[in-house]
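Figure 3 (text version): structure tokens given as input.
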């Protein structure tokens, strides 16, 4: 956020508009497919609210919940069709209702509450995933998790507990949604997870949450991926990993790689992107964006896993850098990262860009892929695939040109375009100067970009260090 919240509150829309936005939330939003906000219960409460209006202080959770639903729904409705005018309108209108919800954040956290307060804050975090919103999701999710811990959602209720089966199912569902989202944010930002596996003793859900348009299989697949992501974080990027030998780290990487590939192989057909060799399987609760999420999670996790060997700013953290074992593993990991990055770019070509487009789809995975492909070109600019990798980086730059247009210039990000230009120039010059060069000699270029001793935390912006040092080339 770049400015404080307005002290004025946006009034409720008229009933017809409220129902239009609520319908959009329940029928079009990613949030509802994650099992957040039961539809019939919400619509019944909304009708009651409009028939006998309640003051804000009567129920802070209800005030926050309906305003967050209005924010998400209005962004979907007003942003339809894309384009700069619709983007600006959707951003401006939805933010007014999100400000309403955020204004009672302190009350939700510090005043007596029930699990509705957790769901409200969690829903606000998901709202901030949209590219038109400020990036508040990390702090909002952290707050939701702490509030959930205070209400013991991570623990199995005792047998003498008076909770109904419905309440137990709701607590269980919210806990696992927070878990998978926590791991997703952790591995894409490099920040530590909030939830440790050892803290949880509740079983996975056995049925989709009642009255929501969610799919149990999708949740379970996402949770399993989140568990592997947490293992990658714990085993390879924790402080203890810095004192392990190359052999130990290599063994861990191979095990986690096998776990990831086994997870992907076990995905049901309806959860996979269709290709000419894989026919489309219709699923009433799975959309194209869910396919992309699972695909990107798989390829993105491969990139993160193998970056411990292949990314130059990780090298100083490893012992025995010049060993034969390191050289072999680094070559294998670089190849895996390059293939995964190519898949991310190729899978990212068919999605609409509007105010609701999630940041992971528009920003994180494309930039991850472009950065990895650039490093692959620097590592081996005379490789036969270098030119096609340059083209893929240019495709990512084209995606950001679409974003620039769709946002009316609000999101003008030049990094992919600059990387594409430098990659193209480097590949051309290397072919011109020495077309028969052994690719291994070009690894010295990486040492120029990232000299020995360079370290980067996972949440450091890759674009910052690359942009500062590209002039070396």
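Below: residues designed for each position.
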């Amino acid at each position: 956020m770049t400015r404080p919240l307005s002290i004025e509150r946006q009034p409720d829309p008229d009933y017809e508009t409220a129902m239009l936005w609520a319908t959009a939330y329940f029928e079009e939003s990613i949030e509802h497919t994650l099992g957040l906000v039961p539809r019939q219960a919400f619509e019944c409460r909304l009708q009651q609210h409009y028939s006998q209006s309640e003051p804000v202080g009567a129920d802070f959770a209800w005030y926050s919940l309906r305003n967050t639903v209005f924010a998400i729904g209005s962004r979907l409705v007003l942003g339809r069709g894309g384009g700069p005018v619709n983007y600006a309108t959707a951003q401006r209108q939805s933010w007014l209702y999100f400000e309403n919800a955020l204004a009672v954040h302190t009350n939700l956290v510090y005043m007596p509450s029930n699990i509705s307060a957790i769901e409200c804050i969690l829903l606000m975090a998901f709202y901030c995933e949209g590219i038109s919103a400020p990036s508040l999701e990390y702090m909002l999710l952290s707050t939701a998790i702490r509030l959930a811990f205070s209400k013991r959602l991570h623990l199995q209720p005792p047998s003498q507990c008076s909770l109904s089966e419905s309440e137990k199912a709701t607590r269980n569902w919210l806990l696992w949604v927070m878990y998978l989202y926590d791991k997703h944010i952790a591995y894409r930002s490099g920040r530590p997870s909030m939830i440790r596996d050892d803290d949880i003793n509740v079983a996975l859900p056995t049925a989709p949450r009642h009255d929501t348009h969610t799919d149990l299989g999708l949740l379970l697949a996402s949770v399993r991926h989140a568990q592997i992501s947490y293992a990658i974080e714990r085993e390879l990027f924790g402080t203890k990993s810095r004192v392990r030998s190359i052999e130990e780290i290599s063994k861990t990487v191979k095990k986690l790689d096998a776990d990831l590939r086994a997870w992907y192989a076990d995905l049901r057909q309806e959860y996979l992107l269709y290709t000419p060799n894989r026919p489309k399987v219709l699923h009433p609760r799975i959309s194209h964006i869910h396919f992309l999420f699972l695909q990107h999670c798989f390829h993105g996790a491969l990139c993160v896993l193998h970056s411990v060997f292949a990314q130059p700013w990780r090298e100083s953290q490893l012992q025995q850098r010049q060993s034969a074992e390191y050289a072999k593993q680094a070559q294998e990991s670089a190849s895996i990262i390059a293939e995964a990055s190519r898949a991310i770019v190729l899978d990212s070509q068919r999605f609409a860009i509007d105010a609701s487009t999630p940041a992971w789809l528009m920003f994180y995975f494309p930039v991850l892929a472009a950065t990895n492909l650039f490093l692959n070109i620097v590592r081996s600019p005379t490789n036969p695939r270098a030119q096609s990798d340059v083209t893929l980086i240019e495709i990512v730059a084209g995606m950001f040109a679409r974003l620039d247009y769709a946002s009316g210039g609000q999101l003008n990000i030049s990094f992919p375009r600059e990387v594409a230009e430098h990659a193209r120039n480097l590949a051309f010059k290397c072919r011109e100067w020495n077309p028969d060069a052994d690719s291994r000699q070009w690894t010295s270029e990486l040492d120029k970009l990232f000299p020995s001793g360079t370290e980067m935390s996972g949440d450091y912006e890759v674009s910052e260090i690359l942009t500062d040092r590209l002039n070396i080339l």
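The chain is about 60% helix and 0% strand.
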